[in-house]
Design a protein that fits this description.
Helix 2 crosses helix 3. This protein has six helices and no strands. 76% of the residues lie in helices and 0% in strands.
Length: 121
């Protein structure tokens, strides 16, 4: 089913841009998609959605932190902006080591805790 939907989405996108070239599909984009799946949790749709939300919000948080720190320390602003890929790599490694089931597993644990909250013993 997912391959069918991916094929339909690809054909609609090809019709929209009118040309498909290898420059549209970079390795960075592939790594971002893989990171979304790993961070969200492999094997679940909700995990993929949570991973996509996390990977969209992470650059915005990094940009906010970089802007705040570059106001205070103007000399390190450019070096902090270049650390974005390093932070992405560290986040992926962190999730692979400490939370291999992803954000979906954490969400399931939170739901189970609150389902039994007053008597969780």
């Amino acid at each position: 089913m997912s391959a069918f939907y991916a094929g339909v989405a690809g054909s609609l996108w090809a019709h929209y841009v009118t040309i498909i070239t290898p420059e549209h599909f970079t390795i960075v984009e592939s790594i971002n998609y893989l990171a979304m799946i790993i961070i969200g949790g492999i094997g679940s749709v909700l995990g993929s959605i949570l991973g996509a939300i996390f990977m969209v919000l992470l650059p915005e948080v990094l940009r906010f932190i970089t802007d705040s720190l570059s106001d205070v320390f103007p000399s390190i602003g450019n070096s902090l902006a270049a650390m974005k890929e390093v932070v992405f790599g560290l986040v992926i490694i962190f999730f692979l080591i400490f939370e291999p089931d992803g954000l979906n597993h954490r969400w399931q644990m939170i739901k189970a805790y609150w389902k039994l909250w007053p008597f969780s013993y």
